Amino acid sequence: MLNIDFLKNSWFFQYKELSKGELVFDEGDFDENLYIIISWKIWIGKYTTIEKIEKKELAILSQMDFFWEASLNSSLPKEAIASVLEDVKLIYINWKTQIEDFVKKYPKEAIELFSFIIDSTNKRLSYANRQITANNEIIKTIVEIESVNDKNIFYIIEKIRLITWYNYIIFLEINPVMRDYLILKYDTREIWKLQDEIIERKKINDLKTITEFVLKNYNYVQKLGIWKNDLWFMIFWKDIKFDYEDKKLILSISNNLTWLLKQKEVLNEANNMIYMKEN
């Protein structure tokens, strides 16, 4: 376990407090520091336009996370943005000017620091590999299906459950006639998984009131839609609380499923137009 108090009180590590919205560093800055978060959260992202207006989220880091270990062997400008999501407390050390002296004076603590970085990096790589593998498998399955219909969509949902190892997934869509209500379409817990149950949409925002959904408190709701219009919901459950990496994985996989659902929606609209013309 990394001894934060020791590092904080050592001469080599500097202490800093930043307020919500402040930048730790911007993309393109030169910064040779390794940062460790004592409390609250940091947003890591990247600009997606030359004008530096739009940004893409790469990660959200919290207590005991570190960032910008790349400065150990690189003097290149920052390739990402680090900004404060909530008032944050940090400690940091300059890799180029202070780390060698730190190692000489405190070899035991230096080994603990490097072990902590290696272990955390391995975990991040494991999460990234899981996300890449899951997405590749889902994309491959989507490409292989012959038609876009409910049966194949439910097949994809079942595939998602198997790939992610979550205990169950419930799939709902907004009632096209009464948009304040949802239709429960698929429930991986049930023997007969295909469902057709009407549920008030407002209840989805308070899962603890939906006794038929809750086995434990560890539920996560993912909205799916076209543009800003929510059309479907997926409810995931597992044995322990969903962490940030879980949510990233679900969002990434759900984006692929949304593409398939969008194709189904387009086909439905086309079929409705044909029906209206013929009648």
Question: Can you walk through the features of this model?
Answer:
This protein is an alpha+beta fold and 279 residues long. It is built from five helices and 13 strands. It has a five-stranded antiparallel sheet, with helices on one face. Strands 1-8-3-6 form a four-stranded antiparallel sheet. A hairpin with a 7-residue loop joins β4 and β5. α4 runs antiparallel to α5. It starts with a helix and ends with a helix.
- Structural class category: alpha+beta
Q: Give me the count of strands.
A: 13
What amount of the residues lies in strands? 25-35%
How is the largest sheet built, in terms of strand order? 11-10-9-13-12
Q: Average the pLDDT over all residues and give the rounded result.
A: 84
Count of DSSP H/I helices: 5
Outline:
elongated
CATH superfamily of the largest domain: GAF domain
